[in-house]
Known about the structure:
The chain is α/β, with parallel strands linked by helices.
Amino acid sequence: MPPLTHALARGAFFPRRARHGRLSAALSHRFISTGLEELDASSEEDIMRKSISAIAMTAAAIAVPAMAFAYPTQPITIVVPFSAGGPTDTVTRLVAQSMSAELGQNIVVENVGGAGGTLGAARVAQARNDGYTLLLHHIGMSTAPSLYPNLPFDPTTDFEYVGLVTEVPMVIAARPSLEHETLADVIAWVQAEGEGVLYANAGMGAASHLCGLLFMEAIGTQMTVIPYQGTGPAITDLMGGQVDLLCDQTTNTTNQIRDGSIKAYAVTVPDRLDSLPDLPTPAEAGLPDFSVSIWHGLYAPSGTSPEIVARLTEALQIALADENVIARFADLGTAPSPASDATPEALQAKVVSEIALWGPVIEAAGEFAN
């Protein structure tokens, strides 16, 4: 028997699953019957060639879909465009752990800080669009176009949107020795002292920077702004009394408020928080039109396939429904985004609307980088 014929007889050209059960029997019966019927008209070699061709086509049809959805097959990196230990880093690590379990691959969190989050975002914008380099960024994706005239990426075209992750409330806080007891008292003091009040933030484009801009606009008074390289040093100096005020995310301030290391006056969202129930809302504290929260989203480089984006969105939604993630977020004063918001469409709408919202605020403040 020729080698090719011998191989076919042993089933070498059949997919592994096709060698057994009903599919194997059906294929074998089909080709044996075809061969008998055409024996008088065709040579054995022609029959064998047609059979092998049909089997190869069947195998290819089975294999291609499986290969198309073979993702992920290696570890994934999520870039956090801020330093380790900050609120965005904390959120990312909690979500990454749960997503890793769902995807069956390790997820490495890499901190690429600098320039208000734009360095890390630019790196992901320029990365291969194979689904193995992602970005978890906050509201800075919408403020960067106004803050950075020479921004090296476009948030609306250089990324594929995966979904919203969380929307973190903020807290207006002060050094523990500040004698004022209510936010109304603090506002009156700031308006009287003006630039004699030292306001700390974590640097250009940070959440604390943005909240400070809105707060000063709301009360019509400019404070002296002290920028730090990260939230950690800013809070450390607030605790030590080197600066007076800071507005930052609950993910970064809740524990310090609870243990008395810093003094808090109000949350920055319309409803009180279960994690800090004694803090009034802006309306209750005398700032009815003041509201700001820091949303976070997950992104992939532009051109990432729809199948990969869909798989990432699915894994994100499963992670955000994880009881451990929900509990840990609650400890930090926030909550995971609902499944209806953890979608590409919701994140895209958020980015576009927030670019329009923050542009005039930043323009009025006249604060720009590079």
